[in-house]
Amino acid sequence: MERYIDMHCHILPGVDDGAASMEETEKMLRIAYDEGIRCMIATPHYHPRRGHGHPDILRKKLTLVRKAAQNIDEKFRIYLGAEIYFGQDVPEKLRQGEILTMNRRNQVMVEFSPADSFNYIKQGLQQIQMAGYEVILAHAERYFCLVDKFELVEHIWNMGVNIQINTGSITGDSGRKARQFVKDLMDQDMVFGVGSDAHNTENRAPRMGKAAAYVKKKYGEAYMKKIFFNNSAAMLRKIKSESEG
Ligand SMILES: [Fe+2]
Which residue of 48, 58, 126, 245 shows the fewest CB atoms closer than 10 Å? Predict the structure, then answer.
């Protein structure tokens, strides 16, 4: 069976609009494991309304989720990151350790509102880069400006921003436009990594198998492994930035 890393999911219980309880977390872990997911980066929202748990609380929840994962398979790994909704205060809060990076590395995953303008998105990404972080743009297929004009996502990619896409968009669950857009991204080898963006056990469950099978068939096994495992694995292993001590 293939092994995948889910780099974007809301698996921590009771911290955002993802898993509501430990019971739901456990069910999501089981679904993920059965899909072939062997490592998950829990990315709770840092968002004014959807959740902004303090890092200390998130780390405590991580410990619980790690134990639950080990009950399924002792090699089932869970790491901690965040899905950061961009705001002007984000660079400073990252520096102060009030917002989490991906597995305490130098990468941060950032999201915007779907209807935000290209200039706002571009400037937000630049601000975080200038603060010294590598940026991952969460679910790039969700931003209207990028989907409507492919050269704009090329511009962002040329800035050195890593592009994350959701499995549901590969399989067509997010509509035809999103599906075409993620295909175009894969055709151009512009995708850094894939995540389930799971929130629950039903309509937004941690599924990756079907999307991976599609990518393997259409783009080959090496490419599938690159965006479903290898790039995320390399990120998890990267050395901590100096500023984190
Ligand atoms: Fe998310």
Answer: 245
